[in-house]
Design a protein that fits this description.
175 residues; nine-stranded antiparallel beta sheet; single chain; globular; 29% helix; alpha+beta; 4 helices
């Protein structure tokens, strides 16, 4: 029974993570935005959510093996797809126009200046608000930091990043 449920869950995730007829034709990448919380203090915690190009907000909790962007801020398509397979719950759906609006802002925010990291808390963990822009040349996703809060604070100083952050906070409150 457990194996059957695992197989069914896997098949459901695979179908949900593929582009469908509802995908936004102006956005030619699979994943757009993500919120990731991780904390190693007291007890390990790792959860978050991602928004795909169809507008689905899907969450994850304690993924088996999560792939993070490398030191240059890139994550391969294979690693991103491995992460997407671990998204398990549809939280809500963002309409196409709103999704396009904030993706356009992300493109501008990609050139925003980042503040220097500042220690703010201890043992609170970190929540990373980010977006992704697919680089056709390298075939990798470039992570665009919007804001990091918690133990260390880092902010993208562009107006567009602030607008994206406020939008993502509103989505986070629906969870």
């Amino acid at each position: 029974m457990k194996m059957k449920m695992t197989v069914l869950s896997f098949l459901w995730i695979m179908t949900c993570c593929k582009k469908d007829n509802n995908s936004n034709p102006l956005i030619s990448q699979q994943i757009l935005f993500q919120v990731d919380y991780i904390n190693y203090a007291w007890t390990y915690q790792h959860y978050g959510w991602s928004i795909d190009s169809s507008g689905y907000v899907r969450s994850y909790k304690l993924p088996k093996k999560w792939n993070f962007a490398d030191s240059a801020g890139y994550i391969s398509t294979v690693n991103m797809n491995d992460n997407l397979k671990q998204l398990d719950t549809v939280v809500c759906k963002i309409d196409k126009d709103t999704l396009q609006k904030y993706f356009n802002k992300l493109i501008i925010a990609a050139s925003g200046e980042l503040t220097k990291p500042e220690s703010e808390m201890f043992d609170a963990g970190s929540t990373l608000f980010s977006g992704y822009i697919f680089d056709l040349k390298s075939r990798k996703y470039k992570e665009i930091l919007i804001r990091q809060i918690g133990d260390v604070f880092i902010e993208n100083k562009s107006i567009e990043a602030n607008q994206i952050y406020n939008w993502m906070i509103r989505i986070n409150s629906k969870r």
